[in-house]
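User: Fold both of these, please.

Assistant: Here is the first one.
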Amino acid sequence: NAEYMGEPLVEMSTLVTLVGTPFSTFTRTISMGLVEKGIVFEQVPALPHSEDAKAHHPMGRIPSFRHGDFWLFESLAISRYIDGSFPSSVTLRSQDIRAAAIEDQWASFIAGYAFPALEHGLIKVRLGASVDAHNEQYDAKVAEGQHASSAILDIIEASIRGPFLLGSEVRWPDLFLTPILSDLNATVDRNLIYSRPKLAAWFQLMASRDSYTRTSAGTLEAKQAKL
């Protein structure tokens, strides 16, 4: 059940496959990067811990990535490989070693801190609650999640250097953060984005990109829009 994605802007001699459901933020990070670089790929919409996921990641996580007979897992490793193996007019990782290190720093920060605070601490709390679960325990979890998410987003807001997170060009940290905020935008806590002027402008800019639109099917935002 592979899905064709992308436009043939880069000559491909071997098949590229992305394993992971579009609902996954890290899978979407990689699919956005592939679209940004014009790389044709197939997407196998595997869920975490499914047989397809476990076949290529020792912990059954997603995404995993195939280029010809070469398999790779973990999003940061995949992102580095994509820029190193598919040269094009679009680069998502700087050639300057210090600039690239800063980009890795923020991609790691987003994956290590923003993802658990927002996705696990708030978004999934909202999604997992039934109507009759709105009690003091639920309210306390939401308040805790909002506080932790706000702290992370304040750090990011203070660090934005231009129209994109690190300046005038799209880089991998933009693509790590965008799917998380897309999910947040689908909840009642979306004002955590729009109450921060630089973050709101950045998110609106990212949401206007072709890579955002092409990878939106199957995401939380797309599912909520149908309700």
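And the second sequence with its predicted structure:
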Amino acid sequence: EKFIVSDTEEARQNTVLYPQPLNVIEGPLMDGMSIVGDLFGEGKMFLPQVIKSARVMKKAVAHLIPYMEEEKAKKLAEMGLDPATADDSSMYSGTVVLATVKGDVHDIGKNIVGVVLGCNNFKVVDLGVMVPANKIIDAIKEHNADIVGLSGLITPSLEEMVFVAKELERLGHTLPLLIGGATTSKMHTAVKIAPKYSSPTIHVLDASKSVVTVSSLLDEINKEDFVEEIADEYE
């Protein structure tokens, strides 16, 4: 933890390997977290160590955020857009609502997903932690969201995710639902959550996968194939 900021800065300055600050997150930082995830999955690492690793990751990301914001502002200026006056549809590729579900306060993974999606031109509405289902559903309506992402680290969160899926179904929502967090899994998503919601319900392993998933779901041409592929896999 002691060296993470200096190591991150060293990587950021290496523009040959990492042309953009985001590449540092999507490269070495994600690789590290994915090893942590694998070890946790195999029972070789326990929750306190996972949380500690995530804290280190959070520090590194916090160091990179100002550089990424700067880059984003430059990009918008090149497109002739002023964030203060441009409308969302011309500025963003889509809107994603993210929340850590009720009963859970862990948000590091969710925050990293938010940063990565934000850098890839998605509007991210982050509702924070301990968010009840009704608040998530209100935000979907208010922001006219294209996708909703639920996050959780503790086991009871899995039940809460099932409840949110049921509520989305009951209220007739059709936007894709993404599931992520340390205790979540493809198996649990396929067996317990997906059957409760008739729109695409997809487990996202880590933040680096979130961009591909979100882009695929918002791509009019390839969306159907992508959703079908996931559905086959979940059967």
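The longest strand covers residues 95-100.
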